[in-house]
Prior knowledge:
The protein is mainly α. It has one domain (3-236). 43% of the residues lie in helices and 8% in strands. It contains ten helices and seven strands. The chain has helices at 3-19, 41-49, 55-65, 76-84, 118-121, 129-132, 139-155, 164-173, 175-184, 205-216; strands at 38-40, 160-163, 190-191, 197-199, 219-220, 223-224, 234-236. The chain has a three-stranded antiparallel sheet. A two-stranded parallel ribbon has the order 4-7. The chain has a two-stranded antiparallel ribbon with strand order 5-6. α2 packs across α8 (164-173) and α8 crosses α9 (175-184). The chain starts with a helix and ends with a strand.
Amino acid sequence: MSRFSALKAIYDFYDEFTNGLSIACQKGCHVCCTTNVTATSLETDYLIQSGKMDKHLLKKMEEERQKDHFIPSTTINTTAALCLAQKAIPEETSSQTFEPCPLLDENGLCSVYEYRPFSCRAMCSDTVCTEGGQANMPPFLVTVNLALYQILEHIDREGWYGNLLDMIPLSLAGRERAGNLAVDQEGTIKTNRQLPCFIVPPDDKIRFKSFMRRLGSQSADEITLAELLPEEYSILS
């Protein structure tokens, strides 16, 4: 099975899922399209192999990478593991910046829309952001998004995680050299880990289990997505 097949199956399922929601996001709405995008190495590899990242876009990304930008303190599954162990979660020491994403074109449209990372897809709002200044996300969608972040990290558990600006050079280097680059950028690039548990509010548990059954039944080449997850997993409320 191709790693990209599993990733695309998740993307397609999520697109179908959000199409059934009342979402205000429209073509050209790009208030949330900033340099705060995070991604796993699997997602960045998928973006690079698409051929959409031409020299012009790569140059813009590298120029933005040289500036101060958001660096996540830890991965999502590491945070979940700390919650499960009832340990303190590291605070984010890197402040977010709200510079426009370098992948936006002159019309405010994403140049790599079909291949954009999950953190871009997950930014949904049921109100127009430009009117209120911030996104308003349905509570269950927050639960679903968190779970899918965890699943993507689990599938890419031998890879890395970080700001998309920092992940692009790793994917360009190829998997064999990326490990050395990740070590060189310790503190900027985080190592992925397997799924420890899902974090789900008590009121969402029944609905979440139904969502997971639907997700798990999706095909990725000759297997289902459920086969890529641990046979048993806990749900932490």
